[in-house]
Structure formats: structure tokens, C-alpha cells
Design a protein that fits this description.
The protein is an alpha+beta fold. It contains seven helices and three strands, in the order ααβααββααα. It has a domain of about 120 residues: Orthogonal Bundle (Arc Repressor Mutant, subunit A). The chain has a three-stranded antiparallel sheet. β2 and β3 form a beta hairpin. α2 packs across α6 and α3 crosses α4. The protein starts with a helix and ends in a 34-residue tail after the last helix.
């Protein structure tokens, strides 16, 4: 599963499919227009073969079979046991993939006609906060409480899909002397 999800284009396909969407590969190509159609088709095939996407329905279109896919949410996540088993190099590769995906999605957004980061409330602030272990756990819990209910929102005409990428890691070790630096 980690190998399947560990590619920027496959992650972009997964993002596009979230929220209960059922899309054809042609629709995915339109959504991920900065990537060649052949590449999108190849990655959709890999995700389907790996069980992350499933065929929702099929119909005949101009003599060919057109498939609409849906995301298998239960297969599109990496469980805690897998995360705990990752090496430092695995984490390094995973983070690089996440950043490459984020950059590709942001560039695709900026390349759209009418992109307006101010009107769309785009944000990419970074904050450095001093937190004890208890404060960190409280912060993570508060973030999950705010984000988790919205992850089940379905696509509707009045909703735009936003990519939310919380990133959290220590940039400095705890020190016995707060004045040490």
C-alpha cells in the first residue's frame, strides 16, 4: 500500500477521488491536466489493480467501455502499524512525495484561469511553537476534532475541494536550559 500511495501523481488521483466522487479516467485527466493522459491512465490502472480504486460502473461510449472509478477509502490510508514500522529513510521518501504532490497541486491551482489566492483564502503560513508533550497531544487532538468531521463532506455544487496538509515535526530538541540555544 505504501508503494502505491508513495507517488505524487497517484496521490493527486486519490485527492481528486475523495468525497465520494466517481470519475472516469478522462475526467481525472482533465482534473490533472498538467500530466500526460498516458501517465494518468497508467497510474489509475495501478491504483485499481492495487485495490485503492474500484470500478463503480461501466458504460459503452462510442464503442469503448468507459469506467467510472471510486476511491476505496479503507485502502487509501496508511495505518498506524505501518507508520510505526517505517525507517527514517522511508519517512524521508514519504515526506518528499507529500511535498512534491503539494507543489504540483499548488502549481496546477495557480495555472487555472481565474486563480485568486486572496479570494480563495489560500494559506501557507508556518509557525514555530514551543510545546510540552501534553500540549502537543492536546494540539493534535484539537486539530483532529476540527478537521475530521469535514473529511466526510461530499462534493456538492457549493463546495470547492481544498487540499489541507498539516505538517508537524520538531525543529529543535527539548533542552533542560530554556536559555540554551
Amino acid at each position: 500500500m505504501l508503494e502505491l500511495l508513495g507517488h505524487p501523481i497517484r496521490l493527486r488521483v486519490v485527492h481528486a477521488m475523495r468525497g465520494g466522487r466517481m470519475l472516469t479516467t478522462s475526467q481525472l485527466c482533465a482534473r490533472i491536466s498538467d500530466v500526460s493522459k498516458a501517465t494518468v491512465y497508467r497510474h489509475v490502472d495501478l491504483l485499481a489493480a492495487g485495490g485503492i480504486l474500484e470500478v463503480a460502473d461501466e458504460q459503452r461510449v462510442r464503442g469503448a467501455v468507459e469506467r467510472r472509478y471510486r476511491l476505496r477509502q479503507d485502502r487509501a490510508t496508511i495505518d498506524a502499524d505501518t507508520i510505526a514500522s517505517l525507517t527514517l529513510d522511508d519517512h524521508r521518501r514519504g515526506f518528499a512525495t507529500a511535498m512534491a504532490t503539494l507543489l504540483a497541486e499548488f502549481n496546477a491551482y495557480l495555472d487555472r484561469d481565474g486563480a485568486d489566492p486572496v479570494a480563495d483564502l489560500v494559506g501557507y503560513r508556518q509557525h514555530a511553537a514551543w510545546l510540552s508533550q501534553d500540549e502537543l497531544l492536546e494540539l493534535i487532538s484539537e486539530l483532529r476534532s476540527a478537521i475530521a468531521p469535514r473529511l466526510t463532506n461530499q462534493a456538492t455544487p457549493d463546495r470547492a475541494q481544498y487540499l489541507l496538509s498539516p505538517i508537524l515535526f520538531p525543529i529543535e530538541e527539548a533542552s533542560a536550559d530554556p536559555e540554551a540555544g
